[in-house]
Amino acid sequence: MKNILGYPDFKVNKVIETDDSYVIEAEVLPTLDKCENCGSENVVNFGWATESLADTPIKGKKTTISLSRRRQRCNDCHKTFSINPPHKYGSRQLTECLVDYIGNACISDSFSKVAADVGVTKNTVRDVFTDFCKRQNEMLTENLASGLNKFRTPRSLGIESILAVKPSTLISNVGNQAILNLIPNQGKSELETYLLENIDADAVNFVVITPLDSYREVVKRVLPQSVIIVNKEHALIIADNSLERVRVANRVGLSAKQALKLRGDSEILSKRYSELDAR
Fold first, then answer.
1. CA–CA separation, 260 vs 279, rounded Å?
2. CA distance from start to end of the chain
3. Which run of H or E residues covers position 172?
4. Under a CB-based contact definition with an 8 Å cutoff, are residues 22 and 16 in contact?
5. What are phi and psi of 169, to 5 degrees?
6. pLDDT tens digit string along 74-98?
7. Which of 6-20, 38-52, 261-275 is predicted with the least confidence, judged by mean pLDDT?
């Protein structure tokens, strides 16, 4: 059977597909040659151990791997053991690929949406994203300290407000879609300190921000020559709210008959121009 998982050390035995999910029955191919307890090579197969791992969505559907590992027994010390599940993320019932997927998805989507997309709980997504940000911070710190990768200030800098356990500030390289840092609050002083110590002001041309006064003030003070751009998601929210205020104000003073003619105007105003017709 075709290995749709893409893991070379997994053998896919069965694929169960529904309208919104995949359940894939697979087994781990490698086994252990020696006893983990005494080192003896006198080992025999001793049944199976099965567990479920959530994996990266396939074709937009939630994916679960029902993974079987061969249990083995030592004929000398009589201990039973089995190989650790490859690609499993620590003690969580998730694959390492899914953990990376969740970390990147949470940068642009809410925890609730990501949880619904991959089939795990919102709390799991929050914990995974917190670990993801810590790893990104550690990698950045190690690279800067060791000089393995010379840090370059991006031309397009992102400063976003996110909720990672608590309100935080995400600093990113917009052009490369890479996380630079996660500040565990939304304070002006911490953001200003980070920008002054780590960012070459002359190299930044654009700053994409969440429209908070604190962010705008810091950017104007520390990066005065850069162009401030409001994050697209928040720009759309501002535009929608403004349009709604105009729609409501336009109804003031109308008679019941006139207001009836405008029934459904909210739905019409939310459509794209190409979706409108003469009616």
1. 15
2. 54
3. strand 166-173
4. yes
5. -120, 120
6. 999 999 998 888 899 988 999 999 9
7. 261-275
Q: What is the DSSP string of 17-46?
A: E-SSEEEEEEEE----SS-TTT--S-EEEE
Q: What are the backbone angles phi and psi of residue 190, rounded to the nearest 5°?
A: -65, -40
Tokens 């349009």: give the residue. Answer: 243
The answer to whether the beta carbons of residues 203 and 153 sit under 8 Å apart is: yes
As a whole number of angstroms, the distance between CA 52 and CA 69 comes to 11
Q: Residue 136 half-sphere exposure, CB side, CA atoms within 13 Å? A: 22
> For 53, phi and psi rounded to 5 degrees?
-125, 130
Quote the CA–CA distance of 191 and 170 in Å, as a whole number. 10
Q: In angstroms, rounded to a whole number, what is the distance separating the alpha carbons of residues 168 and 138?
A: 17
Task: Report whether 149 contacts 143 (CB < 8 A).
Answer: yes
**Could you tell me the two tokens for 220?**
């104007």
Beta bridge partners of 10: 28
pLDDT at 189 over 50: yes
Note the pLDDT tens digit of each residue in 16-26. Answer: 999 999 999 99
In terms of phi and psi (left: phi > 0; alpha: psi -120 to 50; beta: otherwise), the region of 116 is alpha
Percentage of the chain lying above the pLDDT 70 cut:
94
CA distance 225 to 269: 37
Report yes or no: 80 and 49 within 8 Å, Cβ to Cβ: no
Secondary structure element (H or E) that encloses residue 97, with its range? helix 96-105
